[in-house]
What we know:
The chain is of the alpha/beta class and 332 residues long. The protein has one domain: TIM Barrel, CATH 3.20.20. It contains 7 helices and 10 strands. α3 crosses α4 and α6 runs parallel beside α7 (315-325).
Amino acid sequence: MITRRGLLGLAAVGALGGCGVISRKEAAAPAPSPSPEVTPSPFAEADDPKKLGGTVPFVAGKAMLGSYLGLDGMTYPEAVKLRREQLGRDQRITHVFYAWRDNLPSSIEGMPKKSIPMVSWRGPKYPRILDGRSDDLIAAAARRTRDFDRPVLLRWGWEMNGDWYDWGGPRNDSDPAGYVKCFRRIRKIFDDEGADNVSWVWSPNWNSSPNEEWNRMEAYYPGDRYVDWVGVSGYNLNKEAPETLFDGFYRTYSPRKPLMITEVGSKDHGGTSKADWIKDLSAYVARRPAIGAVVWFDTDTHPSYPEHWRIDTDERSTAAYREMARTARFSA
Length: 332
């Protein structure tokens, strides 16, 4: 039985200029058998392995390390500076959240020069897209994104296999096919507007709520021609190992697309638990060649939520994250 905490609002304000709602799910699901030897040749089913990732290309053997970065009492540029000092490097992915009616960004103040923006864009319920009434809004968003001076990862309608967002199947008459139609329509409008700097990220939650056959993540997949990266959200809330969170997803999609852990964080369960989990995540990614990016939810600004997901809640966690950030695997 899958349960979750109530929806929690998070405003991406100030330098980021957007807003969104992020939910944290508590899930008790059977863990797949740990499989430290999961190292298949990735992308066996891909049409052209050389073009994997679209405008944000997958680099074999390397992974980008980025974050949603929002620290209490700091502007975004200040938070970027702090992390640079702690880690000895910059974020390769700058994750930001925007509401459906927000103007999507054409720049982000304080973003590192070599960082790639990942824009998580909320959605409405399906009829507002499928009946055409949002076409002008989508086209305007495409033109703004087109004006960015670099490639953009666009993550529309994430965690659609959960019951906590308006664009999720459970809130749309249990209709995964409607989500697929929305994703394809949005992509077509972006393509028509010439937003060819966009790399499209499809990103379910690691498990589904409700946990029913119609709501499995595969039912929401828009198709290989519409997706450049396949992402997943998964948090260590109840002492879940990385294998528990990500192996089912990995087995399903690693033969066809580069993978990205688009949201991840670890709760501190006492002692060295958080540092140990970060080390486990680093080792996990090292054994799974199809993972081309990891994006930490690096924040302590969740309203009404006690957990600080930021990487530096204690010295051991900071050191473990710094060690992960400096490995060759995360040198992309």
